[in-house]
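Annual report, structural modelling task.

Input specification for the iron/sulfur cluster complex:
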Amino acid sequence: MTEAFLQYVWQHQLITSPLRTTDGRSVKVLRVGDPNHDAGPDFFNSRLIIDDMEWAGNVELHLSSSDWYAHRHSSDPHYNNVILHVVYTHDRDITLANGVTPPTVELRHFMHEALVRNYDALNAPLPDDGIPCARRLGEVPPIVIKSFLDRMTVERIEAKSVVVRRLLDESHGNWEQTCYWLFAHYFGGTVNALPFELLAKATDQRLLARWKDQPQRLEAILYGQAGMLDSYFDDDYPRMLQADYEALRQGAALTPIDNTIWRYHCLRPSGFPTIRISQFATLVSRSSNLFATLLDITDAKALLALFACTASPYWDSHYRFDHTTELSTPKRIGRSLAVSLIINAWVPLLFVYGALHGQQQYKDQALSLLQQLPAEDNAVVREWVATGIIPENAAQSQALLHLKHTFCSSRRCLECRIGYNILKQSSSST
Ligand code: SF4
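The model returned the following structure:
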């Protein structure tokens, strides 16, 4: 038993029979009151009928009545308006600072055993980081789960919007620039997100737009700015890029970033930054106003096609400059990266745009894109599937990831609609 759970039981009135005080008076709750998360009584503005008299005031809760003294409320006038003391165990009578003894309800007599058992089960340690309510989920109406997942989807997008808002701030509200930086960030994946973002910030988007119809120039600028052309090369292609970059560098006052920040370790060769930069150059060549272009696309398939960029032909047989591979294959962005660009970059950006402009249609468009994508398949999603919750699309798989990471793993069952449903059912079970 915890005080948080006792407050929850009071707030939701998860009780088995009409309340009575320890001295036998009937208690009817007209209004449980407003939960108070600051100093002072736990619920303000409660309204009760005790026997036949109506009372308005505050309600204080404790595990034991004697906590009233342990918490030094007996001399604190802020508690003088307490009209009911609700405790789990009554072990002594109390008095307010003004000398009045408020009535006490010992809540454990009005709580179903199953309610306490289920609460304990939700908090019991698990051998792995599993889903504490897994065995009870079948009892929760699907509509409850679905509506809570809808809320989780929005929370997930909002959590991902932190990067968007940071970049939007840095660009002083320039949506095109934010979009360009954001996509660069996610082209870098988890390992090279920062180097990619620095590369984009060091390379003016307008310069890239000027050369968007000349792929070799685009690559020269990006590889040069990435600090990757500052070596001696045997192959013709990097030597041409080098020459192009040097020519452009004079007029455009370009300063490369430090090339030692690029990471190759733990990456599959197809994810090397050398390959990703060429694919990024292809995306840049497809639109000089990427943000405006993307705003008009409502179909997820069209977005996936736009993001399926292929690196330039040199990379068919290379993963790094001057290192020829035996096999020659075009290096096209795989579906999982394209999906990740939609989920992590575009959907949050579109959502923030809709929110900041008060235009619900863009927020709806962001949600619709997620709903058009198939559910993701990963360890967390498989865990939910094993409980019988099968996501229908990426909006729901994203919701399940968020639910697991931000609610289940921190045991926030008392804040969860699914948890409420489980506990409510057990409070009325026979
Ligand atoms: S937070 Fe909700 S879904 Fe997660 S274990 Fe608790 S009750 Fe279940």
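Strands lie at 19-20, 26-31, 34-35, 43-50, 53-64, 82-89, 104-106, 318-320, 323-324.
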